[in-house]
Amino acid sequence: MERHRRTASVFIGDTLYAEPEVLAKRKSTKRPTQDVVTLRTMGKEADGTVCMSFGRRMLILKRGHAVDHMVEYWWRSRPVGGHRHRPRHDAQARAGMA
């Protein structure tokens, strides 16, 4: 995976465009509904000069696995009431400790 590279100067007011390119795709070993996609993105100025490039990997949902299913899964995994606090252990609750 290449690191972030800057190849030309940019200035305030310049118009920049991002051009992604898919380099590879593989199945995720831990998430069967997703693939790992390797991308290279090139930043270009309005005249087409490449001013930066960087690589990254992303998890992408496979076809047929809608985002709605992921939201439903996430929502069900939340504690009742949607609170983000650390749950109390039963011993703490009996002792009246928060």
TrEMBL record:
SUPFAM superfamilies registered for this protein in UniProt: Thioesterase/thiol ester dehydrase-isomerase
Domain of life: Bacteria
Protein name as annotated: Uncharacterized protein
Organism this protein belongs to: Siccirubricoccus deserti
Upper classification of the organism: Bacteria, Pseudomonadati, Pseudomonadota, Alphaproteobacteria, Acetobacterales
